[in-house]
């Protein structure tokens, strides 16, 4: 639909797409398959409507063996309707009658049957930000044609990039600073005022290095994803609702990707600053590695909680911690890590000027 109608779906375009007509054609196609397959005749199933009734029985009246046998039978029938085979390609699977029907049903639920669900959120949800987003989506008829799983998939991908970037920064920064301590170079630096300022220069170099390294990793990681087709949605607004997710802000996918890149940079800089602090108090590589492991684990945890499903009502930081009362708390969490890391590292660097050498 995006290729046909662009970024938004107008009422006349929805009528032109004719979801009911397409579903009727698929029902006829599946009825023909059912009429020619023995497994359906064995259970006296003559059309898709009868298959729907057959495939939704009262499982409470079956024992475990009967449930297993029945599930296998239904699975075989579904394979017939999806034309499943060992040689079937992914494109052929998507083009099969059952999968096309499921796609049309999802489109119908998203662009036709969205109002009852949104009104339920407006009337009953306790999260003010979600209620506001539901009102906006209802007002605009849930018309944004963003791919339903694009932001969810991209946010998970970005969370992995955050972890990789933070670990790369830690492994790059910490050994260099620890080497100075191992070789006692810091004691020579303490002999002059200029030398005592070295740690401050190293802190600045750490922040810049973390930014540059993280930026290069973001470009290297994001480019393949965007070039695979996601980049076509760069200027498409993401504010939308499906049966299992709601994106909360009226920004484009390009802005969404940029925000996730900014969160990655913030967490990477924060991780670099914490690695700087731990390296300051490490006199050998083993001690440094032991101390930096918890930092890497913490950053990975924050990435999983904040970057994954960012700006969605399913985000853990947004829903579970802040209860949907703050706008974009997941972004604030990443910024908080960066600010705390930089401030703590700055305090350590300033204390270095007054350290006593015995």
UniProtKB/TrEMBL annotation:
Keywords: Membrane, Transmembrane, Transmembrane helix. The chain crosses the membrane at residues 154-177, 198-223, 256-281, 293-311, 331-350. This is Uncharacterized protein. It comes from Paenibacillus oceani. It comes from the Bacteria.
């Amino acid at each position: 639909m995006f290729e046909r109608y662009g970024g938004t779906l107008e009422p006349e375009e929805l009528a032109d797409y004719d979801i009911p007509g397409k579903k009727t054609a698929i029902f006829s196609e599946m009825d023909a398959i059912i009429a020619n397959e023995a497994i359906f005749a064995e259970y006296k199933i003559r059309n898709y409507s009868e298959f729907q009734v057959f495939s939704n029985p009262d499982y409470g009246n079956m024992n475990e063996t009967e449930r297993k046998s029945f599930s296998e039978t239904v699975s075989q029938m579904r394979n017939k309707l999806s034309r499943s085979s060992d040689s079937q390609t992914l494109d052929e699977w998507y083009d099969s009658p059952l999968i096309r029907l499921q796609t049309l049903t999802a489109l119908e639920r998203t662009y036709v049957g969205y109002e009852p669900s949104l009104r339920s959120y407006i009337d009953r949800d306790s999260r003010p930000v979600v209620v506001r987003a539901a009102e906006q989506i209802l007002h605009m008829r849930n018309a944004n044609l963003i791919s339903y799983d694009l932001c969810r998939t991209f946010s998970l991908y970005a969370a992995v990039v955050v972890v990789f970037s933070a670990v790369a920064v830690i492994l790059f920064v910490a050994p260099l600073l620890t080497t100075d301590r191992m070789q006692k170079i810091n004691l020579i630096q303490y002999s002059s005022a200029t030398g005592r300022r070295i740690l401050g220069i190293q802190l600045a170099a750490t922040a810049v290095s973390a930014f540059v390294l993280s930026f290069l990793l973001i470009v290297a990681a994001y480019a393949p994803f965007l070039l695979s087709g996601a980049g076509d949605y760069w200027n498409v607004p993401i504010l939308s609702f499906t049966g299992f997710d709601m994106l909360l802000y009226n920004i484009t996918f390009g802005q969404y990707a940029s925000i996730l890149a900014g969160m990655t940079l913030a967490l990477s800089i924060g991780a670099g600053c914490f690695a700087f602090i731990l390296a300051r108090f490490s006199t050998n590589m083993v001690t440094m590695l032991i101390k930096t492991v918890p930092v890497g684990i913490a950053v990975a945890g924050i990435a999983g909680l904040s970057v994954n499903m960012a700006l969605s009502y399913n985000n853990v930081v947004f829903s579970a911690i802040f209860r949907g009362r703050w706008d974009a708390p997941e972004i604030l969490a990443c910024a908080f890590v960066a600010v705390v890391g930089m401030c703590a590292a700055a305090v350590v660097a300033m204390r270095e000027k007054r350290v006593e050498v015995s």
